[in-house]
Amino acid sequence: MAIHIIIDGYNLIRQSSDLARLDRQDLQLGREALVDLLAAYKKIKPHKITVVFDGAGQPSLYGSRERAKGITIRYSQGGESADDLIRRMARKEKTKALVVSSDREVMAAAESAGATVMDSPSFEEKVAMASYLAIKGDGETVDSRGWVPTTRKKGPSRRLSKRKRKEKARIGKL
């Protein structure tokens, strides 16, 4: 199943130390740095990515809906916040969506719509790890010992709920 990553753009920028520094210099510089970071991530993991910015009453370089470097960029229109747009997109995408935001209201609304949620610092960490592993390699070693007997019991009592297992699988794809 394909994942559609919906990102609260300014939230992620301001939660990241590197992007926040660029954002303080110039708002457009911060947005471009985020799009560059996501474009590099998209080359490693080809998920559909949409970044949502507050754009009410603001002219933008990209327009209200644009694609740059394979990333869909959306700006909220007048009278609507980026949070409202993210909530609406999460309701539309349901279980296919992974919403990245540290805003509790957005996370709760997306989760109630059936989407998987992740806070901004965790997503930034996943992106950094993916780029590190792409450069370094997976680093997985094959255990040649084969099966090792164990007395550890496994079974339904240790099993996550079906919903939690699906969320874990979606996050694992990052």
From TrEMBL:
InterPro entries: YacP-like. Residues 151-174 have a biased composition (Basic residues). Transmembrane segments: none annotated. It holds the Pfam family NYN_YacP. Residues 143-174 are annotated as: Disordered. This is YacP-like NYN domain protein. It comes from Desulfosarcina widdelii.
